[in-house]
Amino acid sequence: MKVRYVSLAACLLGVASLAAAQDETVVKIGSAAPTSGPIAHFGKENENGARLAVEDVNRAGLVIDGKKIRLELDAQDDGGDPRLGTQVAQRLVDDGVVAVVGHLNSGVSIVASRIYHDAQIAQISPNATNPQFTLQGYNTTYRLVATDALQAPVLASYAMRTLKAKRFVVVDDATQYGQGLADQFEKTVRAKGGEVLSHEKTTDKAVDFKAILTKIKAEHPDAVFYGGFDATGGPFARQARQLQVNTRVLGADGLCSDEMAKLAGVAAENVVCSVAGQPTSRMARGAAFSDAYQKRFGVPVLIYAPYAYDSVMVIVDAMKRANSTDHRKILAELPSTNYAGLIGTIRFDTHGDVADPQLALYRFEGGKMALLDVVRP
C-alpha cells in the first residue's frame, strides 16, 4: 500500500510538471555565426554571449501578454560563408525565430539581411562593421558596434599622429569586411595628406605572403594596414618579421584576439589593432559579466560576448514594450529602443546603427592584448 501511495505521488508530481511546461510558450531567438572554420573562436563567442542572455532571462522569468515565456536559442553555424549564410538565414526564418543575433562577418550579414527583411524579422549584428550593412534601406538591420567608416579613421589618426607614419601600404583579404576596412583606411590616409604606396590583394584562405611582403619591403612604408582576420593576419605579421619588414602592422577587430598573438608569435608586438566597441573592463558590470561567462563556458571573453548578450536583451526589451512575441511587433519597437545594457545605453539612429559607438585601440605585450586607448569618434 505504501509503495502504491509513493507511485501515485510521483505520478501526480509528473503531471504537475507537465502542466507547468505546457503553460510555457517557447519563443525562439536565432543566433548565426561561424562556429566552425578558422574564425570559429569569434563565432562561438557570439553564440555563447547570446546563450548566456537567454539563460539569464529564463532564470529571471519572462511574462508577455499574461503568458509565461521560455526563450530558446536557435544557434546555426554559417561558416563565415555568404552562400551558407543565406541558407542559414532561410533556415532560421523557417524555424520561426522572432529575431536574429548575427551574423558576424559583414559579407554574410549583408547577403543574409535580404532574407530577414523579406520575412520582416529583426537582425541585430554584434560584429558586422561594413557601413553597407545598414545602408540598404532595410528596416530590419541593426548593429551594436561602430562601423568601418569610424574605425578606419581612428586607426589612421593613431598611425599618423602617434606613430608619425606618412607612407603606407594597404593589404586586404578580398572579403567585404577586409576590403571595406582597407578602402576606408586608404581614403582616410589620403584625406589627411598621407601617401598610399600600393594596395595589395590576398584572400581569407592564404597561408603564404612572401611575394606580397617582398614587394612591400622594397617600398619602405612607415606602416602596413592589413584588412582581414587573425587566421591570415597572424601568419602575415609573422612572415613580415621573418623577411625583416619591421614596420607596424595595423588592423581592426579581426586581428584583436589572443589567437592573433599565437599565430604571429613575437611579431604580434608589431601589431596595433582596433575594436569597434569598448573593452569589457570599462563596462560598469563588465567584471561580473566576465566572471559569469568564464564560469559558464570555461573560457574568457574575447571581444564581443557582451554585444551578443545585449543583442538578446534588446530583443527581449522590445518584446516587453510590444507586450507581444509577434516578430513584426517586436521589430516595430526597435527604433524606439533606449536600453541600459552591459555596453552602456543603447539607442539606434535612423539607419539602425548604435547611436553612441566607442572604439578601443590595442597592442600586444607578452602574447596578450594591452589596451592603448578608448575613443568616441
TrEMBL record:
<keyword id="KW-0029">Amino-acid transport</keyword>
<protein>
    <submittedName>
        <fullName>Branched-chain amino acid ABC transporter substrate-binding protein</fullName>
    </submittedName>
</protein>
<keyword id="KW-0813">Transport</keyword>
<dbReference type="InterPro" id="IPR028081">
    <property type="entry name" value="Leu-bd"/>
</dbReference>
<dbReference type="Pfam" id="PF13458">
    <property type="entry name" value="Peripla_BP_6"/>
</dbReference>
<feature type="signal peptide">
    <location>
        <begin position="1"/>
        <end position="21"/>
    </location>
</feature>
<feature type="domain" description="Leucine-binding protein">
    <location>
        <begin position="27"/>
        <end position="367"/>
    </location>
</feature>
<keyword id="KW-0732">Signal</keyword>
<comment type="similarity">
    <text>Belongs to the leucine-binding protein family.</text>
</comment>
<dbReference type="InterPro" id="IPR000709">
    <property type="entry name" value="Leu_Ile_Val-bd"/>
</dbReference>
<dbReference type="InterPro" id="IPR028082">
    <property type="entry name" value="Peripla_BP_I"/>
</dbReference>
